[in-house]
Amino acid sequence: MSSIFEITQKDASGRIGKLVTRHGTIETPTIMPVINPNIPLIDIDEMKDIGAQILITNSYIIYRSEKLHDKALNEGLHELIGFDGPIMTDSGSFQLSVYGDVEITNEEIIDFQKKIGSDIAVPLDIPTPPDVSYEKASSEINTTVERLKKAREKFTDDMLLAGPVQGSTYSDLREKCAQELTELDFDVYPIGAVVPLMEDYRYSKLVDVIVSSKKGLKPSSPVHLFGAGHPMGFALEVALGCDLFDSAAYALYAKNKRYITVYGTYHLENLHYLPCSCPVCANYTAQELKSAENNVELLAKHNLYVTFEEMNLIKQSIKEGDLLELVEQRCRSHPRLLEALKTMYKYSDWLEKYNPVTKSTIFYCGPESSKRPEVLHFSKRIERFTVNGSAIIRSNSTKQDDEFDNILMFKPPLGTFPVELLETYPFNIETISSPDYESIEVALLNTIKLIEQNPEANFTFVYEYDLYHPLLDKISEMANLVRKYE
């Protein structure tokens, strides 16, 4: 695995990496535009100009078309598509999930993908939808794993083989499936059957599915989130450790006259202005776009531009170490995404394992920031602080500072720490001057922890906020509490 995927930069569980295929190396995270071999909506060269490094198409559609089938076998997949970079091929599992059956076996579709020269092939797994019975999900996992095992045993050449992780909405089954596939040593691990969750805006459950799947995989494994094509969720999904995304949304939305932004989608008929400066939007007004004969193609191009723009911003955020700030901003664009953000921070203990231990600074973006892995990381290390003698805990300097042996800083949401660390990470966190209840609570809990582990010290806590919290009563039993606004 390490020979084909190299991680070069990390933030949260997100990463920038290099995935090596026989048709070139791609930088992740990235989007694979979905290509319908029968009806390409955008010229392939234009797709490359917009940012496409790798494409994905459906080998089952090619297999069923006599014209496409023969050309793919005779000339190869890349000649058929007109693309000289890496191409991933799906197996027909989506058709299986929609129509209930496909006219091909697992062995046949894998063999066909190999013959036409696919760079990343997908066996015929069973995409178990959300909310089926536990027994059904477990049974279909067994069938999927058996098929994948046979595919892995048969194909060992330089064609990369994907092992889709299934398990419906059951976290334990997702993790178990991922563990079993890890033992089979696949090259890429798609997380399958999540489109229904995204269609129903069940982003919170999507977080559970991604994290449980990731827990069963090696941290170094490249992960593909099947069917995730709308940019409003990319930051969250990358932060959870997804590397590859396939987007049919750019085309499907365009055909329905829908205009994609990172904050949601507009119907073209409702647009009076174009809130974008991509080449399409820079050359058309909203009215001109509505009346253009080729507006479906133009919308598809705009949608693809926006999609790649967001992914570039995400990669820059990983470089800067502020991916979680971007996640929090994006997740406030929709209530269901905000719910997903809260769910993500339920896994802060897991995120903390992969989050870099040093960054430039943190920006507090709201109550959810109190649950960030950096805050948890500090809480686990409070025991390293030893306090002897007298100590003052305060948020701003006081005239009494010189009267104490130790000067400690109180800064929500972190808590209490030596003032000498104030300009270092993570204590240089940028916060608001009037902390919210959640950040005060976490900071007070950490302060109580510090006081409890130094019973011989004499603490004076100068609380300088007018927001009351019940934990102050407990602190008053442990230290000399001075409430500035009383």
UniProtKB/TrEMBL annotation:
User: Which GO terms label this protein's molecular function in UniProt?
Assistant: pentosyltransferase activity; zinc ion binding
Quickly give the catalysed reaction.
Answer: guanosine(15) in tRNA + 7-cyano-7-carbaguanine = 7-cyano-7-carbaguanosine(15) in tRNA + guanine
Matches recorded under InterPro entries: ArchSynthase1/Queuine_TRR, TGT-like_sf, TgtA, tRNA_ribo_trans-like
Identification of the protein by name: tRNA-guanine(15) transglycosylase
From the UniProt record, give the pathway where this protein acts.
tRNA modification; archaeosine-tRNA biosynthesis
Which EC class, in a word? transferase
Q: What EC number(s) is this enzyme filed under?
A: 2.4.2.48
Keywords from the named record: Glycosyltransferase, Metal-binding, Transferase, tRNA processing, Zinc
> What are the names of the required cofactors?
Zn(2+)
Q: Which one GO biological process term can you cite for this protein?
A: tRNA wobble guanine modification
Please give the function described in this protein's UniProt entry: Exchanges the guanine residue with 7-cyano-7-deazaguanine (preQ0) at position 15 in the dihydrouridine loop (D-loop) of archaeal tRNAs.
Write out the similarity annotation.
Belongs to the archaeosine tRNA-ribosyltransferase family.
